Amino acid sequence: MSLAALAIILAGVLYEAPAAGSYELPAISGVHPHALVDSNGVTSSFPELAKGQVALVAFVYRGCHEAQGCPASLALLRQLDRKLEADPVRAARVRLACVSFDPANDTPARMRELRELMAPKTDWAFLTPGDPAVLAALLADYGQDATPLENGSYRHVLKVFLVDDQLRVRNVYSAGLMDPELVIADIDTVTQGPR
Fold first, then answer.
1. Helices marked H in the chain
2. CA dist 47 to 14, 87, 135, 154, Å?
3. Backbone Cα Rg of the chain
4. pLDDT in tens, 115-145
5. What angle do CA 29, 58, 136 make, to 5 degrees?
6. pTM to 2 decimal places
7. If 0-12 CB within 10 Å is exposed, 13-18 middle and 19+ buried, where does residue 181 land?
8. Helices then strands (H, E): number in the chain?
């Protein structure tokens, strides 16, 4: 067994998510709506949230081969998608989104392929910016780094953002906080859901 696999197992044994509502998640920053293209080629404002909804936004690119990068974000969102499927009341309060920072390669058709691969059971969008100016504004707004490298890959830090219905970032999950139970507790804390 690898050291990484052992660390993951021990984290599950040693860590228990706090009870929803037993803590506060103050706003970290605010974000703005951005015009993004979905996997069907339709442009719309993102994120559009109804009162009481939250979005979990993962910035990814299809060419990422780092296990603790985009694949880890996708794995977290897939776990959340399946947990939300089992709880329709909570699912109605959550929108999942994968947003590419490689629009030259991650066309709507390629994002549709990713959507089919992930087989979402809940409200899970697969989006890409329509042009470089939208991408630059989006990344700056969220504070997401994505530096293109000569080999076609990107240097980036794994981040998944919890955004509330007033477009405030309430938490940012990275490599050490990719626990679906913690995210569910945070969702319930922000939306005043089940405790």
1. 3-14, 70-85, 88-91, 108-118, 132-142, 180-191
2. 35, 22, 14, 24
3. 16
4. 999 999 999 999 999 888 999 999 999 999 8
5. 65
6. 0.88
7. middle
8. 6, 10
